[in-house]
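User: Please write out a complete single-protein record containing the residue sequence and its fold in token form, without commentary.

AI:
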Amino acid sequence: MDTFKIEVDADGIALVTFDVPGRSMNTLTAQVTRELPELVARIRDDAGIKGAVITSGKSTGFCAGADLAEMGSGLFGDTSGGEAALKGVYDRVFALNRTFRDLETCGKPVAAAINGLALGGGFELTLACHHRVLADGPKAQVGLPEVKVGLLPGGGGTQRVARLIGAQAALMAITEGKSHRPAEALSAGLVHQVVPADQVVEAARTWVRDGGDAVQPWDKQGFKLPGGGPYTPQGSQVFVVGNALLRKQSYGNYPAVVNVMKAVYEGLQVPMDAAIRIESRYFVKTLMTPQARAMIRTLFLSLQELNKGSARPKGVAPSEAKKVAVLGAGMMGAGIAYVQAMAGIETVLIDTAQEGADKGKSHSEGLLKKRVSRGQMDEAGAQAVLARITPSTDYAAVGGSDMVIEAVFEAREIKAEVTRKAEAVLGPDAVFGSNTSTLPITGLAEASQRPENFIGIHFFSPVDKMMLVEIIKGEKTSEETIARAVDYVLKIKKTPIVVNDSRGFYTSRCFSTYLTEGLEMLAEGIAPAIIDNVGRMTGMPRGPLEMHDDVALDLSYKIGQQTRRDLGQAYVASPAESIVETMVTKLGRFGRKNGKGFYDYPADQGSKTLWPGLSDLASVKVRETDPAMVQELKTRLLYRQAVEAARCMAEGVVSDPRDADVGAILGWGFAPWTGGPLSLIESVTQFVDECERLAATYGERFRPPERLREMATRSESYYARSDGGGSAQAA
């Protein structure tokens, strides 16, 4: 075996080291799944082996789960459908499930020494062991996150977790894709021991040596399911209430969530050997859905490629930013300073007043205290991060920086002023990045003495949580500058997408259509509650009105005014714009930031409520809905965004569909179940015809670009046309 090494000690305990060659992290590759039955047979049949401990040879952790890249490229064979194809996929899926079952019934005690991360199929391997010892450390976690890529656990996870901790707790953990850190995993009953990392193997070995039980609880006579089974009074309520909760959480957009519920419900009523067959059938059924294929492609394959630097120009030498200055210590600048310092970058945080700069640094201090309190970092590590941030008002401190990130107020004049001040002390090779969400980079670069080094680096708020960074290339931005910006984003552990200059670039331009379509509906007289409820039903994180409050109405108004000035006669106003103008200029309702927008926000942090005065601005004509109307509103909200993404592709703002789909989901929360706006377009056979109907009914904003019409006529795919098209074939 190439992926497993076995050493048997004098006590007959086999130490099995899981170590996939050439990988920084173990995954369940095709080779691993081929060798696992051989490993299980060796443990079972070798008379010299009295028990086994399975651990990892990787310092990064135990196992990150199934290799979805191989899955996409044919690990499970033909996923196009048909009885023979389905049987082939099922046989491949069930083979792994069967092997895990063989491990737990091998008749010898097997312990898992989990030295870090164990997720998905990696955690399922440990669940098939009779005892689990987890290392205590900030990087250690266990869980089943498959629903996040549109799948469900396929190695017995739904059945073993439900039998360990009960159906209710299992369903909550699996349908949320939750990962558990050591103390939480122990408390939940998912692991048996938590010990220091350097003791994890010995603790597992001791359990085996001391006569560990080689029979799983569910294989023993008289086993009782925690919380009761599906037909007990208590257990039945789990599924009755659970169905309602899942509907509320997913709105029926995610087949994986529904199939998890079915697999657990049915599997708990039969012995384990039958239960894993049920799970495998639901896994295959889920794998065949368009949602799963789209999510795997975008949220795993494309995301993985972007996180490896696929957006980086070829032929440019690697770079490393060691010192970076951040101009502006507001919430955005403070967040950028924090992620830089966490990545080991010396950070200068500049503000107009020392008090403001110090306050910006205190933002990092607050975040670090939370990490320490949660066991994610020790106090010494937190202090080391803080020491990397120097708050100042003196631009001389910017000198020697490899890069500058400007995060000041969204106004040309202010941005131009700080650009000149910073460039006065910067070396000739330093990169200047502007964190702007809407202002064209080429125009901002006019204030620079070296526009070839000027680039847009657009972060999303809150910076510590949002994983996307949109890199915007101006007309004169050099390829080297793009490469250095990508290197910087990868160093701070964010996902970079690269787009060309445009008003609003890609993310803000497309996201704004969601907000404005909500305003159009409001102006038409549709009740605000209907608009926001339908928005959430599409799979967006919030309705368009409440999300507009989060963004800030006064910001939208200022951006609109700046756009009006820049475009002059070419500017076309929307009828719904008057609503925002009135809210901001006459009523002082700016959104969540000042406690009043489309909603009222109580000072005591209670639940927000729709502002009653909204009906005075837009009289309500539609207070009730039917299924057809709900579907029409959902279509409008999603298709409006997708059409704008198609326009960005047609205009060359975005050239790679991976950037478009990943950027949409990570950047503004576009409905993940679709795989992104371009994946949504490709999943709807009559998308262009439907957009033409919407344009005729509601306006030209729905009119598809000519390029999209041509693609539809020729049955072409965005992914097949792009250089990154290899990922299209993977899902």
